[in-house]
Amino acid sequence: MSTPYIPCLDLGSYINGSEEERKKFSDELGRAFNDSGFVTITNHGLSQDLIEKLYENIKAAFALPLETKRKYEKPELAGQRGYTSAGKETAKGAKTPDLKEFWQIGQEVTDGDPVKNEYPDNEILEELPEFNAVTGSIYKKLEENGTHLLRAIATYLELPINYFDKHVHNGNSILRGIHYFPIENPEIIPDDAVRAGAHEDINLITLLIGASADGLEVLTRSNEWLPIKAHHTDIVVNVGDMLQRLTNNKLKSTTHRVVNPPRELMKTSRFSVPFFLHPRSDMDLTSLPSTIDAEHPKLYSDMTAGEYLDERLREIGLKK
Ligand SMILES: O=C(O)CCC(=O)C(=O)O
Ligand SMILES: [Fe+2]
């Protein structure tokens, strides 16, 4: 089920559809990215079974003792691989860190591409061998879905359909398993402490498998917070700042947040698993000439994806 402002699109109709269906999907996706910056998608090819396995493993991983999880927290990796404990990530411009802990999995390069040297190895969670296999398989499937979505967007932007392919092949994407832990003593947390403070994602697009509980909200153009209702098996997709930058704000990287639960649910956990689709670090994010004109002057300085990521990781406190 989707919220009226957030359209729900059938990815199967793009991947396996007729020319006409593919065009329709690409127009609808482009329009939504131009408007709210968010869609939900169905028929994404991830089985319910795999999604359930994913959540079982994510829950089991965060249920491990803190000292076990801490073995996988390496400050030199700036949160980009393995475990990041509570209190480390703060939304850009916010004072109090988010009420969450998370685990990040990065790209596994297997085709001899020298870009492998840019990526640290993934941390292998020895206590839960299935966790590594399941998250690795989810990573690949979401990457594949994301590549299809970017093809649809390339068509919408009147670029060659494969415009993004070479940039996202072996790109610096991240799968992040998040645990928003129970809030045991709501009275003693700072007033501004939230599960995830209002922010925009850094990457090209984000694909998020419907979370275990409500809480995700997007900021509409009329400045109202709109809750996103997604079935457990739907995928929420949104534009990130890199795609907004490339399109000189034609496509919107919409502000979103995760609110604290109502009082009666304060002591429950929430789990979610976003996939941040990043390009390779050498992708040039200079705004496309077709998106710049007298009415839409150029808004951003020219930067590569790698330079931009570095700047943003410092702003959110993950990189020192
Ligand atoms: O947990 C969610 O539903 C959203 C998480 C999110 O926005 C993020 O990690 O960037
Ligand atoms: Fe986000």
TrEMBL record:
Signal peptide: none annotated. The keyword Iron applies. Residues 170-279 form the Fe2OG dioxygenase domain. One of its GO terms (molecular function) is metal ion binding. Keywords: Iron, Metal-binding, Oxidoreductase. It comes from the Bacteria. Pfam families: 2OG-FeII_Oxy (PF03171), DIOX_N (PF14226). PANTHER family: FI07970P-RELATED, OXIDOREDUCTASE, 2OG-FE II OXYGENASE FAMILY PROTEIN. Belongs to the iron/ascorbate-dependent oxidoreductase family. This is Flavonol synthase.
